[in-house]
């Protein structure tokens, strides 16, 4: 993963390197809840490094990644808007990583998700 590289390069004083390291850490932390937690943990480790650049990178990343807007975004990563796709396309994409019309039928997928209480369909799809 990139987090050890980010931690290592966080002490670089060059302006564009510092900004790039900060940007990379923040963007990784916005992907999902798991990566958000790992990025925050890495930022806290970086904050303990005795370097002005590292402290700037860490404090800026922590401020953004722990902020309300990012926390709402990563918490909603399991909520998927239909965006014009049919339920079948969205469910196949969720289960198989890409739309595969040869995969299970819509009714089979919905039945499987509902039995496990993973699915509630009301206009949008909520994966519970």
Q: Which helices and strands appear, and what pairs or packs with what?
A:
Blueprint: H1 3-9, H2 15-29, H3 33-47, H4 52-65, H5 68-75, E1 79-80, H6 87-96, H7 106-115, E2 119-122, E3 124-127
Antiparallel strand pairs: 1-3, 2-3
Helix pairs in contact: 1-2, 2-3, 2-4, 3-4, 6-7
Describe the protein's architecture and organization:
There is one protein chain. This protein has a 3-stranded antiparallel β-sheet. A hairpin with a 1-residue loop joins strand 2 (119-122) and strand 3 (124-127). The chain has 128 residues and is mainly α. It contains 7 helices and 3 strands. The radius of gyration is 19 Å and the shape is elongated. The protein starts with a helix and ends with a strand. Helix 6 packs across helix 7. It folds into 2 domains: 3-76, Leucine-rich Repeat Variant (Alpha Horseshoe); 81-127, no CATH class.
DSSP strand tally: 3
Task: Work out the radius of gyration.
Answer: 19 Å
> What is the class of the largest domain in the CATH system?
Mainly Alpha
Please tell me what the overall shape is: elongated
Report the sheet with the most strands, covering strand number, pairing sense and barrel closure: 3 strands, antiparallel
Please count the helical segments: 7
N-to-C series of helices and strands: HHHHHEHHEE
Average pLDDT value? 76
Helicity level, as a percent range? 55-70%
From the helix content, strand content and strand pairing, which structural class follows?
mainly alpha
Predict the CATH topology of the largest domain.
Answer: Leucine-rich Repeat Variant
Stretches where pLDDT falls below 50 for ≥5 residues?
79-85
Strand content: 5-15%
Strand order within the widest beta sheet:
1-3-2
Number of structural units classed as domains: 2
Report how far apart the termini are.
Answer: 28 Å
What is the correct CATH architecture of the largest domain? Alpha Horseshoe
